[in-house]
Amino acid sequence: MIVFPAIDLIGGKCVRLTEGDFERLTDYQADPVDTAKKYEDAGLSHLHLVDLDGARNKKVTQYKILEKICSKTNLKVDFGGGIKTDDDLRIVFESGGAQANVGSLAVSEPEIFEAWMVEYGSDRIILAADVRDMKVAAHAWKETSPISIFDLLDRFEPRGLIYLTCTDISRDGKLTGVNHELYKTLMEKYPALRVTASGGVHHVKDLQGLLEMQCFGVIVGKAIYENKIRLEELVSFQLN
Fold first, then answer.
1. Which of 15, 129, 167, 201 is found 20 to 30 A from 215 (Cα to Cα)?
2. What fold does the segment set 2-237 form as a domain?
3. CA 149: distance to chain centroid?
4. What is the pLDDT of residue 72?
5. pLDDT digits over 117-146, tens only?
6. Do the beta carbons of residue 136 and residue 107 sit within 8 Å?
7. What does DSSP say about strands 99-102 and 13-18: parallel, antiparallel, or unpaired?
8. Tens digits of residue pLDDT in 160-200
9. CA torsion, ordered 217, 138, 81, 112, to nearest 10 deg
C-alpha cells in the first residue's frame, strides 16, 4: 500500500481544513518544502499536494511550491486544486507533478476529463472524487452535485480510468477513523481501479484495515501534524 502524506497549501503555508471548510482552518506554521524533505528523509516516496488557493480561485495557484518540492526532493508528487483548463494541467506537469488530481471538472465537463486521459495518459490523471453521502461535491466542496460516485465511475472506468482518490468529506480533518465500508464497496464494484482512501485517518489501525482489504493507497494529513501517527509507522505500510 502506498502512503501519501498530504500537504495542503494556503498562502504558501501548510494548513488543514475540517470537512473542507475554509472557516475551520488550522495553520501549522510549517514550510511546505521543509516538510516534504522531512517526509522523504523518513523514507516516504510519495506526496499528495493540494492547492487550496487554487481550489477556491478555480485556477492553479501554488505551482511554484510544487516546482520547489520537485526540484529539491525525489518524491513522486500528485497535485490537485484548481485544475480547470489545459493551461492549468500543463503548468502542473511542467512544474514537476507526476500526476494530477482532477475533481470538479470531471463532474462539470466530463468530456474534457476523458480527453485529458487520452492526451496525457490515464496513468497521469487521477479522478479526485470527494463524496458526502455518496454524492460528489465540487468547487472546493461548497457544492454537492446530484451525481453519485457510482455515476462518475460507471462513465470513466470503461474509458480507461485507472486511479481514483476518494475522500469522505464527513470525516476529513476530524480524526474520526476511516470509512472502511466506503472503500470496500468501491473496490468490490470496480476491482480494476487503484483506489486511494482519504479522510479520517487517525490511528495505525485505520491503515491496517485498508492494507488488509488491499487498498492501493491512503492519504494521511492531520494525523501526522497532530502526532497521532509517527512517520516511521507510515513507512512500515509502504511498498515501493
1. 15
2. TIM Barrel (3.20.20)
3. 16
4. 98
5. 999 999 999 999 999 888 898 655 556 678
6. yes
7. unpaired
8. 999 999 999 888 777 888 999 999 999 999 999 999 999 99
9. 90
Q: How far apart are CA 15 and CA 154, in angstroms?
A: 34
| H or E element that contains 66 | helix 63-72
Q: Annotate 176-199 with three-state secondary structure.
A: CCCCHHHHHHHHHHCCCCEEEEEC
Closest of 75, 142, 73 to residue 107, by C-alpha? 142
Residue entry with cell 489501525: 205
Share the mean pLDDT of the chain: 91
Catalytic residue set: 8, 130
- Other C-beta atoms lying within 10 Å of the C-beta of residue 118: 11
**Nine-digit cell string for 186:** 468501491
The beta strand positions in 71-168, using DSSP E, are 76-80, 99-102, 125-132, 135-138, 143-148, 163-168
Q: What angle do CA 166, 41, 225 make, to 5 degrees?
A: 50
CB half-sphere exposure, 191, CA atoms < 13 A: 1
